[in-house]
Design goal:
The complex is a heterodimer of chains A (about 400) and B (about 850).
Chain A: H1 2-7, E1 25-27, E2 33-35, E3 59-66, H2 82-100, E4 105-112, E5 115-123, H3 126-136, H4 146-157, E6 165-168, E7 170-172, H5 183-192, E8 195-197, E9 200-201, H6 207-215, E10 221-222, H7 226-234, E11 253-254, E12 257-259, E13 266-269, E14 277-279, E15 283-285, E16 292-293, E17 298-299, E18 306-307, H8 310-315, H9 317-320, E19 327-329, E20 357-359, E21 366-367, H10 369-379
Chain B: E1 2-5, E2 8-11, H1 19-34, E3 38-41, H2 48-62, E4 69-73, H3 76-97, E5 107-110, H4 158-166, H5 179-189, H6 193-200, E6 206-210, H7 212-215, H8 217-223, E7 230-233, H9 237-245, E8 247-250, H10 251-263, H11 265-273, H12 281-288, H13 299-305, H14 311-315, H15 320-323, H16 325-343, E9 349-351, H17 367-384, H18 395-409, E10 414-421, E11 429-437, H19 441-457, E12 466-469, H20 478-483, E13 489-492, E14 502-509, H21 526-542, E15 546-551, H22 554-567, H23 569-576, E16 578-581, H24 586-601, E17 606-611, H25 615-619, E18 629-633, H26 643-656, H27 660-676, E19 687-692, H28 699-702, H29 707-710, E20 731-732, H30 733-747, H31 773-777, H32 787-799, H33 811-814, H34 836-843
Helix pairs in contact in B: 1-2, 2-3, 5-6, 9-19, 10-16, 10-18, 17-18, 21-23, 21-30
Classes of the chains: A alpha/beta (about 400), B alpha/beta (about 850).
GO biological process, one term (chain A): nucleotide-excision repair
Family (chain A): Belongs to the GTF2H2 family.
GO molecular function (chain A): zinc ion binding
Chain lengths: ~400, ~850
């Protein structure tokens, strides 16, 4: 990677090992080719976790993609084009987003030809977002307008309930803003409506983007390469400590009961659409008005009740009580991984020198690299001491 | 924090210190101990000011017998910054030693009366940024004219009178006073802040002022006192020395002179003829001796303080025929008439002395003395005439007086050039009379020399002398020659970075491989112009926010911009960024700059097209996002056919043994480095510097760049097979853009994640077993800078081109470079003392 090359500037191309990049290409489900090398990014330091912080676990996230002609330009670090890299990262993000935030909603906006348009509406349907993103990859044209995109996002989010945390992460590849209007004026109105913009730039640091991120309480990042872009996006997955929410308030939610398929056809709402369809494959009945819904979570269009399943709600629990990071274990006191029972490697690949594994701070159990990732990303609990 | 620098306890107000700051302190301390001059170069943004202040004031604390620190700055904001830093330092000392310690620092800033004035309503429109140049000479008769409004001319300024009434009892508690605080104080106590500042500089430990106060003979006599000094002077000091000693005038100036000299005498004559009538007698006394000055000073102090004129000349009584105002005016008239006659010439004249006609002066033997005295006289007389009108009316006359004095005082190092027309428009007669100083050491010499004499005289008051020159000066060994002194220590400090914040790119070819150069035979070629345009376009498309492009001259910029417009390049640049252009008009340029910054702030991005020797290059900072890239279109050589430059080159060749080409390159690269320095204003800043000329690729040019740029140049000529992405020399424009893109992405990462990317080149940081204890205790990076090693490593970069075998070996083994030679002892070239007969010869 970049650092490795910088560290040994004197090494020649022919001195390094032959890299058969063509062997690493794999075909994806939709028939496009993808380089397996893209996954070899060594992640940076994990962000430290804060325990006991209030977080807005109900989120409405509008992902903004820059589909200007700059997104179609040739870029050595982002192959085949910035746009396809962006779309890949975005659909990956969408998939993981709903795993971690089951009670949140997502929408995708695009900006091209100096305009902004909604690619998908706010919904929690992963497939819908991913399909739209896959179709987008070849439509980069015209100039982007961040101002229009931000204003559209603000308008869309204005209908969202006040306890939902509103986030707009734009992915931009502009070296300069070409908006006709005053971006700073829209910025202040967006900051006033409590929208957090975490801007991710694909080119270079632009002062105005950094300012937007700072003034709306978001983060600013510049992607070095394709894996780094993914890492930046994934940093947005866990809900942030919510400093912007005004006060505590009770939210009325319904836990619908499952209606098994095979009954009489009934009007069923699917997520994200306001028109019911007649179906006979069952669904979830709203406890307040009894209307069927195909998917959860959703909001009942009839009685405007937020509908959740109890397991979804409990899944968000780990954000409030996260598992603390395990310490890197330098010596070899434990030979076997507590999780999988395999021998801990002498020196893990790509890790800091002489890393042999990770130990839980509470009970001291040792884990290998993969188990550590599993515990922190999926299980959110230590199997040894059973506690975060 | 407190630490020891070679047994000297230093208080430093910040919790960490950079290795180069520590190294700087050590050098400074050594040169203070050795009581010699030294030259220390350090890049901008490394915290020179606080380092210097904290070391010298700590030294003052340890050695109370040591005299004052005179800190010279260029502008008022700089002065304020220094005083603010001092305040921080003093606050830190209060923390360490308690509030009521005895040895508090007493620091004041001194600037012109316009900037130090109590009533906010002003007669003058703008406070001048360069303080002293236009400040009217204070005299006893009307000390504070501009404090009072026009109607109240006859009344005396109450502030001045209040201060005068206090006399020497007007004492201030020791503290650091910024200009604002001084004004506040003056308002509170009813004292004139300007005269208060002038009064207290004799007690202060630290005095901050513009360095024209020190160098300009016309002003320095007013403020310079017999005090010991450390002074800090910024870059381009030789040019300033030359500027203050050179005088140019055109026909209109001379036309104005006789008029003023006619209006001059009436009030003056009145007051002289009836001394008891108008002015009070003690003021009259001062005037007659030509020593008019503020009441707090006595006459002998003033005399001793004049750095320019030898004492015996000053002590001579003013010639009798000048003492009378009418004859003095007659004399000036004759001089002006002669100059006018000389100006009416059709041909270019160049001479080292002015042949004055023998006829007009009544007695030739007296001319020299007349001329010398004319300055003092004209000054006192015109200041007296303030009673009737503004001093600015008499500027032409003062100019002639100054000219006459300089002419009579110095025999070498000056030349006179009369150009009957401007080179650009030969048809228009626009005669210009240039009295040029070729020798920068003339202005500096009194400064150096006084220290010497002070030392040999061993006065107890004055214990030390040291001249520390900092700023961006390179190559450092040229300066002692030009300024005519022998430094005890010459050092150039590199900057320590946590990451590579500068990306120098030497672009020698366009994308079509045609060479890029601003050489005379290449620069007008359509290919060159197009490639330069393409380069600018690429940079505008790649680099976010602000970009500054420097052309070599106004005429070249005009030509290129015209052609770019025709080629449609400008229009395409406008797609990415707005374009602003520097013009000769200051107001226009200021507006352009303002809008440039607005465009950068709102994200649109902008390109500023500027001139390498223009005002923007001299004093405007493009920090942070205002300047992410600098593009140098060509090498900013001076116009080598200019007569003034030719005369100076000749002088340098004959007297300092400096080769013409060497000096020109030195000057051009210094200017280029100055332009490059516009974008890096601190360690957290980053920027790209594009040197777009094939001549930058040559070792003789490149090695003259300052160390802080050179340390980032990775040498491609060492290793032609080095991958282009890691090379910064001999690039074509597309390769350069590739590197720029990578650099921008890398620099945009938060600085903490860059910890894993320390610079791989070992020559930048030298860890050693003898790392200074002080730094470790301060938890700073324990990197000790060994100067010897550092210097050699820089030399390594230079000499490595020839020593290709040395690439893998240790740089210290590769070269056996010695220290640069100390400049040879220079003969006394400019004898200031002349006997009268010699002086006659020159003047006549």
């Amino acid at each position: 990677m970049e650092e490795d090359a910088e560290a040994e500037p004197q090494s020649y191309a022919w001195e390094s090992e032959l890299q058969r990049t063509w062997d690493a290409v794999e075909e994806t489900a939709d028939g496009s080719l993808r380089s397996a090398a893209a996954g070899s990014w060594r992640p940076g330091e994990k962000p430290s976790v804060q325990v006991g912080v209030r977080r807005g676990v109900m989120r409405a996230v509008l992902l903004v993609l820059d589909c200007s002609r700059h997104a179609a330009e040739h870029d050595v670090e982002m192959k085949p084009s910035r746009l396809s890299v962006m779309c890949d990262a975005a659909s990956d993000f969408a998939g993981r987003f709903f795993e971690q935030n089951p009670v949140s909603t997502l929408a995708v906006l695009v900006t091209r030809r100096e305009k902004a348009e909604a690619l998908t509406q706010l919904s929690c349907n992963v497939r819908q977002h991913q399909q739209a993103l896959r179709a987008l990859a070849a439509c980069a044209i015209g100039d982007a307008s961040l101002q229009n995109a931000l204003e559209l996002a603000r308008d869309t989010l204005s209908s969202v309930a006040s306890f939902v945390s509103r986030e707009v992460p734009p992915l931009v590849c502009l070296p300069s803003s070409r908006d006709a209007g005053d971006l700073l004026a829209s910025l202040s109105s967006i900051a006033a409506s409590r929208v957090r913009c975490s801007v991710i730039s694909l080119l270079a640091e632009v002062c105005i983007y950094r300012r937007i991120a700072r003034e709306t309480g978001g983060e600013y990042g510049v992607a070095l390469s394709q894996p780094h872009l993914r890492e930046l996006l994934l940093r947005l997955l866990p809900p942030r400590p919510d400093k912007l929410a005004p006060t505590n308030s009770l939210v009325k939610v319904g836990f619908p009961s499952r209606v098994p398929p095979g009954g009489a056809p009934a009007l069923t709402y699917s997520a994200g659409s306001s028109k019911p369809e007649v179906r006979a494959d069952g669904g979830f009945a709203c406890p307040q008005c009894g209307v069927l819904h195909a998917e959860l979570p959703t909001e009942c269009p009839v009685c405007a009740l937020k509908l959740l399943s109890a397991t979804d709600l409990s899944k968000t629990y780990h954000h409030l009580f996260p598992l603390p990071l395990f310490k890197q274990q330098l010596g070899p006191p434990a030979a076997l991984c507590f999780g999988c029972g395999e021998a801990l490697p002498a020196a893990a690949r790509n890790a800091a020198p002489a890393t042999h594994g990770f130990t839980c701070g509470a009970c001291g159990a040792a884990f290998c690299e993969h188990c550590d990732a599993l515990l922190h990303e999926s299980l959110h609990a230590c199997p040894s001491c059973e506690g975060p | 924090m407190r630490f020891q620098v070679e047994e000297l306890e230093v208080q430093f107000p910040y919790p960490r210190i950079y290795p180069e700051q520590y190294a700087y302190m050590v050098e400074l301390k050594r040169s203070l101990d050795a009581r010699g001059h030294s030259m220390l170069e350090m890049p901008t943004g490394t915290g020179k000011t606080i380092t210097l202040l904290s070391l010298i004031t700590s030294y003052q604390r340890a050695h109370p017998a040591m005299g004052k620190l005179l800190y010279c700055t260029r502008t008022i904001p700089e002065m304020e910054k220094v005083l603010e830093e001092l305040k921080v330092l003093e606050a830190h000392r209060d923390e360490l030693f308690g509030q009521d310690r005895k040895d508090k620092l007493f620091a004041v800033g001194l600037t012109s009366r316009r900037n130090l004035r109590v009533p906010p309503k002003a007669l003058s429109p703008q406070p001048s940024a360069l303080g002293p140049a236009l400040s009217p000479r204070p005299v006893g008769a009307r000390p504070c004219l501009d404090c009072s409004s026009a109607e109240q001319v006859r009344e005396l300024c109450s502030y001045y009178e209040a201060l005068e009434a206090q006399g020497s009892d007007a004492a201030l508690p020791a503290a650091v006073y910024t200009l604002e605080e001084l004004k506040e104080l003056g308002r509170g106590k009813g004292w004139c802040p300007y005269f208060l500042a002038r009064h207290v500089i004799s007690f202060a430990n630290v005095v901050v002022y513009n360095y024209q106060y020190l160098l300009d003979p016309k002003i320095s006599q007013l403020v310079s006192r017999s005090m010991q000094r450390e002074c800090v002077v910024a870059h381009n000091i030789d040019n300033i020395c030359i500027e203050v000693m050179s005088i140019n005038f055109r026909m209109p100036t001379l036309e104005a002179s006789p008029d003023t000299s006619e209006t001059l005498p009436t009030p003056f004559l009145d007051s002289v003829r009836s001394p008891r009538g108008g002015a009070p007698p003690h003021r009259y006394q001062r005037l007659v001796h030509g020593l008019a000055n503020s009441g707090a000073l006595n006459a002998s102090d003033e005399l001793a303080a004049n750095p320019l004129l030898p004492q015996d000349i000053l002590l001579q009584a003013v010639p009798g025929n000048l003492r009378r105002a009418d004859s003095f005016v007659l004399f000036l008239k004759r001089l002006v008439a002669h100059l006018k006659k000389r100006l009416q010439t059709e041909e270019v004249e160049e001479s080292s002395r002015l042949a004055l006609p023998a006829t007009p002066p009544p007695a030739p033997r007296r001319t020299a003395r007349l001329l010398r005295a004319s300055r003092t006289s004209s000054q006192s007389r015109s200041t007296l005439s303030l009673q009737v009108t503004d001093v600015s009316d008499f500027n032409p006359l003062l100019l002639v007086g100054d000219f006459a004095t300089l002419l009579a005082t110095y025999r070498q190092g000056f030349c006179i050039i009369i150009e009957p027309y401007d080179e650009r428009s030969p048809a228009l007669p626009d005669p210009l009379f240039q009295f040029c100083c070729n020798d920068a050491s003339i202005a500096m010499k009194p400064v150096f020399e006084r220290f010497q004499s002070v030392l040999s005289g061993a006065l107890s008051l004055l214990t030390n002398d040291s001249l520390v020159t900092t700023g961006t000066l390179s190559p450092i060994d040229m300066y002692p020659k030009i300024l005519g002194f022998e430094p005890r220590a010459v050092h150039s400090f590199a900057m320590s970075f946590s990451r590579d914040i500068i990306l120098p790119l030497v672009v020698t070819r366009g994308a079509d491989q045609a060479p890029l150069s601003s050489k005379f035979d290449l620069r007008s070629e359509p290919t060159t112009v197009r490639n330069y345009g393409k380069l600018l376009l690429d940079i505008a498309a790649t680099v976010p926010d602000g970009v500054v492009a420097f052309f070599t001259s106004y005429s070249y910029m005009q030509q290129v911009v015209r052609e770019w417009h025709a080629l449609g390049i400008l229009k395409r640049v406008l797609e990415h960024k707005l374009v602003f252009i520097e013009t000769t008009d200051v107001l226009e340029t200021t507006m352009a700059l303002e809008n440039f910054k607005r465009a950068c702030d709102c994200g649109r991005g902008a390109v500023f097209l500027s001139i390498a020797r223009g005002k923007v290059a001299e004093g405007v900072d493009f920090d942070r996002h205002y300047g992410r890239a600098v593009l140098l279109l060509g090498v900013p050589f001076q116009y080598t056919l200019g007569r003034v430059l030719r005369a100076r080159l000749e002088f340098l060749r004959d007297t300092c043994a400096i080769d013409e080409a060497d000096f020109l390159t030195f000057d051009a690269i210094r200017q280029a480095a100055q332009c490059a320095g516009r974008v890096i204003r601190g360690k957290t800043d980053y920027g790209i510097v594009v040197f777009a000329d094939k001549r930058y690729n040559r070792a003789d040019k490149r090695d003259k760049l300052p160390g802080w740029i050179r340390q980032f140049i990775t040498d491609g000529s060492l290793d032609p097979l080095l991958r282009p992405r890691l090379r910064s020399l001999n690039l074509s424009s597309d390769l350069a853009m590739h590197r720029a893109r990578q650099f921008l992405r890398k620099m945009a990462q938060p600085a903490t994640t860059a910890r894993s990317v320390p610079s791989p080149r070992p020559r930048e940081t030298w860890g050693g077993p003898d790392a200074p204890r002080a730094i470790t205790c301060a938890q700073a990076e324990t990197v000790s800078l060994d100067f010897e090693q550092l210097r050699r490593s820089n030399a390594y970069v230079a000499s490595a081109a020839t020593a290709t075998a040395a690439i893998t070996s240790h740089p210290l083994q590769a070269t056996g470079q010695q220290l640069p030679d100390q400049p040879a002892d220079q003969p006394e070239r400019f004898a200031v003392e002349m006997d009268e007969a010699e002086a006659m010869e020159i003047a006549v």
